[in-house]
Amino acid sequence: xxxxxxxxxxxxxAEAGKLLALKGNHxxxxxxYREALRLAVSAKAPEVFFRHYTQCVLESLELTDAYDExxxxxxxxxxxxxxxxxxxxxxxxxHGAVLExxxxxxxxxxxxxxxxEALQKACEHAGAGVxxxxxxxxxxLRRGFSIDKARLLRSQQRHHYFVVxxxxxDGRRATPLSSTPQSTVPDPAKxxxx
Length: 194
Hints:
The protein has helices spanning 6-22, 26-42, 47-63, 67-84, 89-108, 112-126, 132-142, 149-158, 188-193. By secondary structure, it is mostly helical. The longest helix is centred in the middle third of the chain and has 20 residues, at 89-108. Residues 171-194 are annotated as: Disordered. Pfam families: TPR_8. It comes from endosymbiont of Tevnia jerichonana.
């Protein structure tokens, strides 16, 4: 039996998580994403994997209304970006995306004023035209429209806000945790210490 490399393993576990999320099983999807994150860190995978899996976690949390966790994460990330003081277009866009998620979650949780402030800040950081969803929502808010969760979700889907989408998932690469040989899953204590 061929044992998958650490890189293949975190990729395939994350892909299985995405399949679960698409079926609405976010509890199991989160288990897969968190294991993929742990394995990616353990394998010293490029940061892009950590960032992508974190985005998958945040999406599942958002779709299950776990707003407090997302708000804390986004506030911490906002403070981190502010402390870094980096101003490349990539950093500005990433910082804006974090603030956009914060604004959306505030709107979904019934706090339109905080949502508007976060969305404005997101657009300021990212620049004009970079976050069309935020710009659309700010336009609605300026005109006094109410934005219920169903309307917000439709807008998110139209703007491809979610990265876990049927056209972005390859089920052939998926390996559910239940079929992962235990010998290939590193000890968590060792994963943290490298």
